[in-house]
Each structure stands twice: as structure tokens, then as C-alpha cells.
Amino acid sequence: MAIASPSAPSFSASFCRIRTETPSTFTRVPSIFTHRAKPRPLTRRLALSARFNKSTSSDAGGSVSPDNGEPENVEPDDSELQYELFHGFSPQRCRKGSPVFVTLPLDTVGPLGLLRRPRAMVQSLKALAAAGVEGVVMEVWWGLVERDQPMLYNWEGYLEIVALARRCGLKVRAVLAFHQCGTGPEDPHWIPLPLWVLDEIDKDPDLAYSDRFGRRNMEYVSLGCDMLPVLLGRSPLQAYADFMRNFRDTFRPFLGVVITRIQVGMGPAGELRYPSCPTQKLTWAWRSRELGEFQCYDKYMLASLNACARAIGMPEWGNGGPIGAGNLMQNLEQTDFFKSHHGSWTTPYGNFFLEWYSGMLLLHGERICREAETIFRGTEASTSVKVAGIHWHYRTQSHPSEITAGYYNTRLRDGYLPIARMLAKYGFTLCCSCFELQDLEEQRTNPVGSPEGLLRQLLSAARVCDIPLEGETSTTSLDHQSFQQVVRMSKFYSYGLEKPSFSFNFVRMDKKMFEYHNWIRFNRFVRQMSDANAFRAKLEVDAMPDTRRSPTSISDVAKFGMGSTYC
């Protein structure tokens, strides 16, 4: 089949897309399964804790729930929390809550694809189950599974995680991570793209994103070559599809039973965006209010831009990104493109470029959504996509840091509604972060940022398009204020919905999580978010044989010791 070359692209006017459909090749790789243990009879009687039978009502302050009116910024007394943890669960009224999942550590699976410290992992999973957590989030790295050769997959470590989670009564959400993890070989959490992909990038550097200064970003393969056979005869889209098919075939017995959701990575950090700001800097980029850099200077992106410009009779608009976009650290009001008044982002050229730039990202997402929907159809596992929480210019007119990431979201245009509509079209869930961040804290150092404003816009888009929502923390925050902020923002999405579909991923499990006061706060948070699920988990744990039961108290968790928990 003929493929249009970058030098002579064949595009349509609608985002100048190449409609080249190439069949995905696939070679079945033998799956690795652990033997299923025979079910053991439950000899232990179901037990309700003394705490559940306590007569104090929630209205009298005997327990805490998201609905009982407790001041949200006042941390509860430790003695009450200790009592609850030792003796069970507070008498909250049964309701349909929001399940809480916990993301596993980055080094859960080692460089050779094997599970690290399995015994300690079991203890940690049992502690999570006892706290009422619904399940865990497991990041499945392309660079580990298909590391050495194309279509040679090693799922061993991930199969073991799923088996352990099932044994502990936990569900699993799998994140198919097609991006790089870490900053380089010296990073303890370094996971590059597959080695054979890096070899191809060495031969053709334009497979990586590039900014106007020629700086290459190796976190994710450029979406400009999505449909071109640049990876040893396969296109990146075919490589992603083959990976997803093999995942489906290998984990089929668990799909819809243990593995209940699959998040499909679509860019750096697994998010549908451009690497306008390196992922390792995103945790503090808001402090410096970085504008970001347009990632449209590899030859494949430039070919698409040039073809679009010629299609509308303006070839001079197709030579690169906007002039006058400023530097990363520059005040946006000092730039010609992003400034609030008479900035060129409001001109016909600005609109053309931003429509093309965001349209290419949306097309990339739609292509992968279409493949994933076809591959996982009938498995009873839902699918999701993550959108980045880039909030540090949200109160400005032009939203430069969002624009450079590929979200054409300004005071004049909603850039997230098209993404939500695309997800609704293919039955995907929207995943977004920043649930623990507060405007009050942000604006002490950055008056133009608004994590709450951005999140409300994303939640509103999800409500309008009637798609389920999956929330996340952007950092590992274990303080009381952060937990209460998550509760507040989850109510914003769920309020007034007849059947709200909201769940939450806590990012991520580490040794601090199991420390005394942090563990108390986390247990209380889980019960606030999903008290009905926590009570069900409590019954299931109490019904387990003695050899499989998990401790539910702080003292029992302490007996594990920090060395016994996974982290």
C-alpha cells in the first residue's frame, strides 16, 4: 500500500489528516499464567465490629462522612480515629460511594520484567484491602514488556501483580504506558521507550518531537508519524494496537473480573498532550509559570502543517510555529503571540495554527480510541484516557501553557469539550488530576493560576457529555486539607446526577503512606469517599480464613514494619 511521504503529503482540509489504513500484523505470543488455586471454604463466621454497633449518630458528631457537616479544614481527633481503626467502621448510612484505587510504586516491576519484593507487596495489598480500597492502579510499561524486540512481549511481572490483587480481593486498573518514565539512566525509576524504538529514533531523529530550538523530546513518539511505517515496517499506531491485542489475549481471564478498567496512554506521562514542558518539570513548572514550547518542528509535523496551509491558500503559514511566542520563562504579556490584548493568538493566523495544532492531537487521540474500542470490545473492562491538569495560566486570556500542550482553551474557546465528545463517542472515561489542589494555596505564589477553575471546566465537560469521571491526585499529598479538597471536588461532579459514575485514584503508594498519622488520615478518607465499599470490603476480609485475613488496625499495620510493606 502506498504511503504518502513527508515531502509530498496527501491531506484533507479537515486537520489535514492522512486516511491511510494499514492492517495491523500480529503474532500470538504464548501467555504466562499462574495456576489458579482452588477456592478454600470459608470457615470463619461473618463478624460485625463493635464500632458499627455504637449508638452515636453521625449528626451528633460520632463519625465523619462527606455529608455530616464537619468543618473540612479541621483535622479529626486522633483518639476517635484510632478507635475506629481498631474496632471497625463508623455507623455511616449506607449509600453508593466513590471507589478509591491506589497507584502502585513506579518500581513495582523491575527492568527484567519481574515483580520486585512479592512478599512485601502482598502485605501492602492486604493493608489496602483492609482499609476499604477498591483496587490498585498498575502501570504497564511498553519499555519493559516489549523491550528488546518488536512483538516479543514479557508480561510475567504484571500477571503476578494481577494474581496477588485477586488473592487479596482487590480490583486492578491497568495503565498502558507508551511513554518514557524518568529523566535518564541515572534516575532510579528510569524506563525508556523500547530499545528497538530508540534504535529507530537514532536513525531518524524526527520520530521524536522537536521545538523551534531543535531540542528533541524522547518521552513519546511524535504523533506526526502515527500512520507511517517508521518502526521496522509498522506504524506507531500499529505498534500500540499490537501491544493492546496481546495484552487482551494474555489477560483475557482477568478482564472484567479483576482488571476492570484499562487506561490507554496517548502522550507524555500517559496524557493526551504534547511534551510542551518536560514531564519531570511539570511538578514545579507552575512555580515558574512556564509558557511551554510548541512541539511542531519534526519533519512529519511540519509536513502536515505545510499541507494544511497550502490547502487554504496560505503557504506562508506552514513554515513553523508562531513567531513571538516568547521564551519558556517569559512574562506572557511581553510576548507578541500570547499577550492578552491584540496578541496574535486572536488573529486569523493564530486561529489557523491553533486549530491545526490541537486538531492533530485530537486526531491522534481518536485514532487510538478507535483501535482500543475495537480491541477491548466485549471484554467487560472499561477504557479511559487521561487529560493533563495544566493550570498555571488558567486565569489569563490566552492560557499559554495549555495551548502549547495542545489544548486550544482560552477565554474565547472551550478546548476540553471536543475531547470529552470524542471520549463519549467511543465510550471512554475521562481521567484528570489536580483534585487535591486549592486555588487559595496556588494564588499565594501564582495569582494567574487556578487548579480548581481548570478542574471544574473538565468536570463540567464530563457532565455535559455524560461520561464517567476518574479523578487523581497530582502529587502524593497525605494531609487532611488535601483529602478534604478531593471530597469537595468529587461532589462538584456528582451533585445532581441521578447515577454519578466517579472513582478516584490516589497517586501513589509509598512508605510515607503507611506511617502512623498518614495511615489514619488515609483510612478516614477512603471511608468518606466510599463508605459502602469499605463496609463490603470489611465483611469480605472478616469472612476470609485466618491465614488470609488482613490486619485492620494501626497496631497490626505497625507489626508489618516499614520493611515489610512494599515501599
From TrEMBL:
Catalytic reaction annotation: Hydrolysis of (1->4)-alpha-D-glucosidic linkages in polysaccharides so as to remove successive maltose units from the non-reducing ends of the chains
Stretch list, region Disordered: 53-77
Q: Which keywords accompany this UniProt record?
A: Carbohydrate metabolism, Glycosidase, Hydrolase, Polysaccharide degradation
EC numbers, comma separated: 3.2.1.2
Active site per database record: E271, E472
Question: Would the keyword DNA-binding turn up in this protein's UniProt record?
Answer: no
One Pfam short name: Glyco_hydro_14
Q: Which GO terms describe its biological process?
A: polysaccharide catabolic process
- Please give the Gene Ontology molecular function terms for this protein: beta-amylase activity
Describe the family membership recorded for this protein in Swiss-Prot or TrEMBL. Answer: Belongs to the glycosyl hydrolase 14 family.
User: Which protein is depicted?
Assistant: Beta-amylase
What gene makes this protein?
Answer: LOC110766680
